Amino acid sequence: MSEAFSCQLLVDPPAEGTWNMALDEALLRLAAEQRIATVRFYQWREPTLSLGYFQKLSDRERHPASLSAAVVRRQSGGGAILHDRELTYSISLPENHPLARNAQSLYNTVHETIATVMRRHVSFSNQIGLIAEESPTSEDNHFLCFERRAKGDIVYRVSAEPKNGKVNHKIVGSAQRRCRGAVLQHGSLLLEKSPLSPELAGLNDVCGTTFSPASLASELRTEIPRALGLKCSPGKICQEVRSRVESWYNEKYRNPQWTARR
Fold it and tell me: Pick the catalytic residue: 7, 145, 207, 232?
């Protein structure tokens, strides 16, 4: 991209899921109203199940292993994610960014950048790649996002005969939310198997890597902005955004009616 867009970079400590989701929404509104882009990396204070926007709260009964986890509803769609041993990212882009209106191009650009960073540390780097084609619609029936397969997801392809029947392991999945004037894309980079989702293996499990959330973020904080043509500077949450986050945190994301709204 010839033009570099200014952007703020946030690398946040672990926080409650309700706060994380309120902040992502506030950054989306900031991009829409003031054309300020943000690249953010964060973690979760406790294992938390984030429901896709259109999922029913009662559907979590379909996954008994995660019933003890905290729960929050995302603004973005897709399947539920058990956030535990992972790194989460979010990108908020104003509509004047070249990729803001092309959902698949944004998805692929970010995921290819993440995959490139991961390949640097994996012996069989050609086994990490993006899904090239749409998956059967039956994939949408799975409750968990990481049990689904969609075009552009990052998977680790099994070369030998799979022991559990899986031909690939999904290690990165993302979702988007659009509003007038901006787009939010946020996603989960699964690093290790969680006791609350034991059927899902992470990058370190299948590749023998030793990524920590901090070590992965330290590489991606440079590579993702570069791929998106963003000129990032360390940022902080301004008072206007913080006030909005605190309001949504208390009145929306912690509200049982919002969580159960579907």
Answer: 145
Residue 238 annotated among the catalytic residues of the structure: no
Q: How far apart are CA 201 and CA 168, in angstroms?
A: 10
Residues contacting 102, CB < 8 A, separation 6+: none
Residues 88 and 17: beta-carbon distance below 8 Å: no
Please, is 111 exposed, middle or buried when counting C-beta atoms within 10 Å of its C-beta (0-12, 13-18, 19+)? buried
Q: What are 52-100's pLDDT values in tens digits? A: 999 999 999 999 999 999 999 999 999 999 999 999 999 999 999 999 9
For residue 144, give both structure tokens: 């968990």
Q: Which two tokens stand for residue 74?
A: 């995302």
CA 203, CA 6: separation in Å to the nearest integer?
A: 31
CA pair distance 60, 100, nearest whole angstrom: 32
**Which are the contacts of 221, defined by CB distance < 8 A and separation ≥ 6?**
9, 11, 39, 41, 232
pLDDT in tens, 177-198: 999 999 999 999 999 999 999 9
